[in-house]
User: Fold these one by one.
Assistant:
Number 1:
Amino acid sequence: MMDPILFVMGVLVLLQTSPNLAMSQSGDGAVRVNFCCPDEEILRLRKVGDNLPDWTIQAECVRKKGAKNILEGIEISVLDSKNNQTEVKRTLAKLGNKMPKCGRGLRISKPNFNQTIDGNGTKQSNTNQSQTFPSIELRKNNESVPNASEGNVYIDGKPVCDDGWDKKAARVACRMLGFDDGEGIQESQYGTVGDNMAMDDVRCKGDESTLFECGYSSYDDCDEGEGAGVVCSRTDDTVSVDLSGKLIQLAQEVDTEHYCLALKIRELYGYWYSSESSESYDEIVTLSCDQCMEEVVCYYVRLLFEALSGGKGGITVRNLNGEKDHPSFIRNGVLRIADKNRDGEVQFDEFHSKFVEYLTILFNLLDRNNDGSIDEVLTNESIKEYSLEFFEHLLNNTVDFFDINGDDSISTDDFISIFPISDRKKDVKVTIYKLFGISLISLPKPLYTVHMLLDENQDEVLTMDEMLGFLRRTFSIVDKNGDCYITLEEIIAVLGKNKVPEDFQLGVKLIGQHYLTLAKYLVDGFIAKADTNSNNKVTLEEIVKFADFSFIDSSISIAKSMGHMNVPASEFISGGRNREHGYGPGAMVDWLTTLNNFLDNPVYQSEYAPQCVLFGQDM
């Protein structure tokens, strides 16, 4: 009879065994993974939707008589995570046939198996996973740079003209060089080129295998300053499988149920198909979902990041040659707020984290009852009334963005790197007049008064205390009912009290109501859609993970169609269609007079008496 203690211990050991390992690694040492399609079927990829981005494709299995998967039984290299990620040899075994369900984030990668198979199923060594073409090379200053990821593009020793050169053409060129993606560069950024071009007016769809498959002209009218260049990148630098069958991709683990294996994809009649056993297309590919592409917030943050980084993998103040570039407001600000490890470069994870931080601040402002949900926005006036706390957060983060020298203030020192002064003397303070060529005393009286009220000690340095004091006083004047929120109606009332003509008030009201109504409609729709578990609660996680792209596409279309400025009203209050108040200059006088009346309020000359929760303080 079996010892009960031994029996219980055995059961506990079985329960603690990893389900993935139990399913994915059999007793004979084979690694079990999902194959995308069963026998008698092959994988087909197809593009979907004209309004979706390039490379948005869907995968499906289609019938193919005689098709047989020859992946099972081949020997591959996998990672042994318990032994310092060393590679060990194992054979592939089928766990099942299962394809990942992706929306727009289908990712096709080439795993590092150090292995290929020919058309007869014979295993071959594969030390280079990327196919390259000897006809293409990258040069800098007309010198070939082996294994470069950026440079001017040369085909058969001749440069390519930048006429028509775009991201799609760059993608094709970079794939010819063995990379996954790329950005197009123009105007011979890596040195002048010869004027005998290999190609001109290159027109690619983006899915071609080589530039020769794109439309182009052999005749050119280009000069040495019109060379086409690329900045290439790898989206999947290392893709491997470990002993448990998990996919290791971009330093993340993908469980066996979330990816599958197939043979290399080939194109036929506008579709892409996996190879059959009788074909010689011998590379293995993995299909998985790019989670960032599946989430609205992450997707659009990535688009913004790629635009700011120029496809270089990170946001820096370095130019294409690695030298310090003339900085911009945007890149300097991004480095200031998002470069958490202070290495002089903002990676996507840092950029995305900062964006989610801003989103969290906005979420907390909308969550007035502090229950971790913003469902109350559907029933209150959150979109039509704005708190002092909102404006203080906005001010604080704006100053943080532009405060380049990190002294919690805004001064000329923060702009010198953007507008350099050639004859500046060391340790001599640069005045506003010296930097911008504007004398503050020459400004219209109300504008000069604003400066005087902001810069209390007149040292041309706006500290956070000075700016917060001005903001809080201004808010208290507008917030007539003292509820610590201001509305459009209160703004109109203040305009009337300070002698704004009634027809101007009507124009402001029409414009304000237009945008507030549109914003309320779009935000309410978003919050209702974000409640994915239908519990009448909308959490921050649900917003960050929001994946309904069809709603976003529809909302963008509505915003574009209905979000145009109310031209008649805006032209009227600016004097463009205003005979009574005079064209242009007459209307400007009215507005400056109103501002002057507003700034005469005694609140600006008195000690501020807090009536609302101040920034950074608890209730």
Number 2:
Amino acid sequence: MEPILDSKYTFMDSHGIVNDDQENPASVNFDDIRKDLIDELSRERTSNASHVVPDQNSAAAKDHMCVYLRIRPFTESEIAQNESQDCVIIENPTSVIFKAPHYSLSSRCSDRGFGQMAQHFTFSHVYGPETKQTEIFGVIKPFIEEVLNGQNCLVFTYGVTNSGKTYTFQGPDHDVGILPRAMSVLFRSIEGNVYQNMNIKPQRSRDFSKLTEIQVKEEEAIKNSLLRLFNENEQYNQSSHHSSINTTEGSLKSFSCLGDIAEHSKYSEEVTVRAPERTKFSIWVSFCEIYNETIYDLLDPVSCKSQKRNILRLVQDAKGNTYVKDLKWIQVSNAEEACMILKRGRKQQKIASTKVNNLSSRSHCTFSIRILHVEPDGLRVIQVSELSLCDLAGSERNAKTKNDGDRLKEAGNINTSLLILGKCINALRHNQISKMHGHVPFRESKLTRYFQGFFSGRGKVRIIVNISQCASMYEETLNVLKFSAVAQKVLLDCSKYLPARLFPKRSARALSLIINNAAIDSSLEKRGTISWDSLPEDVVEMEECDSETVNVIDLKPQEEEEEEDE
């Protein structure tokens, strides 16, 4: 948060302390104690140059978490209710001025001569109310190129309820959001290089496995079943288009993503892929939600409304990567299939009506795209990358939503998870500016536990913050902007997890010979040392190097996984 030098405003810092204009004290003459330190610093730098080796790769790998702001336009009812009080003013393409509404305590203080309270916030870019979906898609378009070149990326929307997050994430059928557009650009970029076979499937966090013919048929049956259910629902919706939308059960007929996907895809700009010419890309997608701190698979079909859904667990692999166990991954061959699966999953997401939002998401949903980089001639996977798109549920106050029963419980869990997310962001920022590193409470929430890998440097993160200009949402919007101010200062260190081409693993016998030879060489150099043989079962093959690629033919399932502490 930065102050603005403007006489008509009185600005507050992040602690709410008013900073009035004061006269500068008289300048003090320090000529008698001034000293030219340039020569001394130059000599000191020269003497230490031979001892200091700059870590250029580490510095290049560190990058700030990019935060983008999108301002929702007013509706006709909001204008009629006098919600437009110029609370949000766009100063330039990267900053906004946020002022208190006329009836607030801050505004009443300004009437008494303190000046009008205003705060200044800076973002990577600010998108005004007139912003089109094509423009906001430019936020994640660079991520598509990076994920096709082996990088892991996360994009999530953040904001209060009814601020336009779902509109940005998926959008209506006549103007689709970032997710359908991302799928369209992705498949346009790899056109002609899509690996159509299902004999290789992603597994755990960054692994994969080879499927047998029976398993391939099972995967095809699951995919065909989902597409058949989608077609049946579409036919039913067309036959009963005159019926009203049941918002309590979460119907999202107004958020269809197939309507104009062919129309907008021709305007989509193709991303350049820097990959070997003979590389194929196998695309797999998953869709899950976190509802009341419980993870559910949105692609797991439920035959009836009363049927209880299967609860999924967050676990860790041998390398400490977190993933959702038993989550369904579906292979898709084009953008249309991906959008069909997306819409089918949205039918099962928890959505309800509140006093503030008629279509309020009651859970955090994540649509993940896993890309396997395959060399078809040798049946080998050289890279595994992932693009995760998350639509977070909006924070809300019960005094305004008037929730009770299940809606009240949902709101409590949503606010708690977002609060812990803010604590994690603050802790990450504190650890970067303080010598004393504190605990980051990733495990206090399923959401932050899921994001931990990205926040720890295993991928890049971008946040799309959605806010409303309504005067009645001033306090909630201010908290969102304060969260954004801290988030964009967080540095993500990807130096240890830079994308690299993966190599096939060595067998336990080969590693044992290498260890024995090293032990023999060390025994010849140093007297009095004792060498011993390493047994094959003592060698951990998957942890010998940072690469994760495994020969598909030699791949064996690993049973090492650690369940998350509840």
Number 3:
Amino acid sequence: MCEVVKTNLKEKLPLIEAAIRNADFIAFDTEFSGLTASDNEQNSLFDTPEIRYCKLRKSVSQLTVTQFGLSAFAKDTSAVYNNYLAQTFNFYLYPTAFGPLDPHFLFQASSGHFLAHYKFDFNKVFYEGIPFLNEGQENLLKQYLENPQKFSCRADFEYESQQCCSTVAKWLVSTVEKIKDQDSLLVDVPAGVTEFVLLLELRNRFPQLWISASDGKIKVSKILTEEQRLEFEENKSKELGKYLDENLGFTRVFRLLVKYRKPLVGHNILMDLSFMYEKFYKALPKSYNQFKSDLHQLFPIIIDTKRLSISVKPLFEHNRLFDKSALVDLYNSLKTLHTNVVVLYPPVVKNQSGFEDYGDTALPHQAGYDAYMCGTVLILAAHLLASNGLRSDDMRPLLFREYLSALRPYCNLVHVIRASSSVIRLDGSDPQPHNSIQWLYIEVRNTTRSKTPIAVQLADLLSQFGNVDIQAVSKTGAIVVAGNPKCAKDVLQTLRGNKNFYVAKYSAWRHSPRIKTALWIGGVTVGCISVGLLWSVVSKLWE
């Protein structure tokens, strides 16, 4: 594993690009400052994929990414056996604060506790986090760098800036009066002061001087010739690119992923993809279909190992390798392919020379380690699929393109947790919801005993049955969604014997107040029209 922070990103960028360029596929993972921005965005079994996206859009815009893990997997062509080499990078991220850009973000307490439990290094986020920009922020920053006078930005430590100006003024006077004979002066950038802001302030105050910045210091020199002045102006234009690159930070890595368009692999990645889009590409669009289309354009092949494991589980019931779909469980389960002869020539994943070997050390919820686990799960699952049905005589170390062919039915399918439909298809229309989600209608018959809202009454009553969500449709009735058929069956059997409740499988025609009202209005309207027509016919007969 290679750790990447603000101070070594520039040095590591060529290594990162080479790893992405030469990879067969890229596994990734992210850690964030929270899961939901408010209680209104909590997941619900009533959510359609489109509703879930709308909730995510609201939350992601108010949260931030704290860590990004990237593991580039490539087949080791020099090895006799079926080996893959992994190059894993763990990036600490922190939003840009520069000029007009000073984003606010939420940090959810439960997420902080969760990360702390797994020894997450918060200091590296705040002290050494790599900045990032999406396209809208990049355009705003370009405008600021080219014409900062048009922007009204926050005061940036005015006293410290003034002290620096005073230092330069005293030096200038001393050189004019021959008290000192120095060609240049180095001024430290005070803590908390933005280098670019101080640079602008000094250049505005002292236009006759050559003022540049490097490594946290401001260098002040006299301009003696016209050639020096021209060189100074040329260097000023290069500086704009330097400050833009520094603030783009991790976005440059994201753009390498887009450039090389390698298959992108993650586990339970709907939220990860939403964060990637919002923070490194563009603000999330209002349109759910636009979001899917844009993602597919950026990354033509996306594989969600959560969705993959659930989909292939029936194929491997005999060896129970996919009984659990959590990432750590899948990783530990599939690693047994090397000790139990389930299939011949299973791929062996090794760390590339120069990258720290995780060995037997487990670091769950470190984004780099999770990306490494995810990539390992993918390549082992792909081997099982590609080998499924082959005779042992036909088995051999397989090529990655053969793995990708076996994975084709599962590409661009993203898992949705706790929703009315568990699958999003990025390259087309979403599949029809699976019938494992059961809708029930429950009505309280005796309402005189309690003034407690129907949803609260049912929540207390149904908590014993497990995974259910409740939505009141009237003062006495509610729709209950059960997460699986067994749960629905238990609720039906229990409440049908209770005289205080009416329970049935939900039917919109019978139980939806809106549809019942619409039918009643429709019936009245048709009745009125019929009476009118009948009266018209009778009147003509009388004539």
